[in-house]
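Progress report, Aim 2. The chain analyzed during this reporting quarter is listed below.
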Amino acid sequence: MSSESSQPKSMIHNAVAEFLHDLEGVNHAVQIACPIVQAASAKTRTKFEDFSEPFKKEASEEDSSPVFHVPFASDKEFRELRRRDAALRSALFQTPRALLVAMVSTYDAFLGRLLRSVYLLTPDQLNASERTFSFSELVSFGSIEAAREHMVSAEIESVLRKSHTEQFEYLEKRLAIPLRKGLDSWSTFVELTQRRNLFVHADGIVSRQYLKVCADAGVELKENLLGKRLHVGPAYFEKAFDCLYEIAVKLAHTIWRKLSPGDLQSADDSLNSTCYQLLETERYNLAHELLVFATTGQPRHSSAFRRRMLVINRAIAVKFGGIESAPWPLDTEDWSDCGDPFALAVAVLSDDLETATAVMRRIGPDHELVHPIAYGSWPLFRSFRETEEFRDTYKEIYGDEFTVTEDKTAEEASVDPDSRTETDEDGEDGGPQHLLA
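Predicted structure tokens for the chain:
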């Protein structure tokens, strides 16, 4: 039996992991491609201007465009440089918007995978479908399973043809859960998806439809945008990345916990792993947004242990991201009986070096969670491992000078695009579980 049919719960985890993998891929493409195009355009523009300057004549009063009187011997090179200059100036506009469209497309693909998970977890959802089959169609399917798969695919396709707002309305109605309540990034999401539509269908020119949909969602726009062309800059890309990341993770985990209340441990571990990776890459604001959702937006967790893991991670985001937080996340928990690993985390985050080093000695050299790789790679110890107190205590425990170690687990846990639907026997992706991050 395939992993897709036997383990639908793991499909939600996989859907999120695949989406974040693809979203990161587009984001890397943005960071690589846009500067290259910009540099190539600037270089070609300079070369064209230097080459054409001797042939440039003053523009007439009727036409402000420059006029060039190019000798025959230079005409071919002149026209080639001008064509290349024009093409690269177009690329300055086309490349960012194409990548933004790709970024939204990764979300659309994610939603399709998430919907498939919903139908497998709650087959009754298909009963509400108004789709009917003729007898000849049923015969052609060959089996009830094939007919069901056809119906699932058709239902997913119909939902994906809706607007992004209608997709949320569909899920809220079918699952009876408020998905947009308290979702501060909703207006950003609506504007982003509407801008994507403009790039695909209207060459980026602002339409009345764009203005109306954005206004209905409470989007704050500049005045007199109608008829103007929208562009995409680095700051907008960063905002779009954070928005899609946040929306997808919150949507998936809200649905996961609603449809599989007995699977809280897997959901907690999956969400914690996602936030840990954000802390590793120092995306503290995005990590904090998701950790607030994880620690205060979820009514239940699988255990106090896992809730405390999320609280520690939130404190890391606050501390190293310079984020205002009242109350301080550590003040929301009682840490008096939580064990040495948590006691060490609390001491480190509170800058209590005396207590932290004392706990290090108690933990010793052979703890399964706190070990040399942890000291060298966990975001928790980012500042602590730079202190003299830490280095002296580390040498006392392990007999060696401290050196930063490379944690291979983040790489090992990454999604292989060639084997995306594969899971291990427990329905997980095989990645490690960072218990204190």
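Residues 72-121 form the longest helix (50 residues). The longest strand covers residues 56-57. These observations will guide the mutagenesis work planned for the next reporting period.
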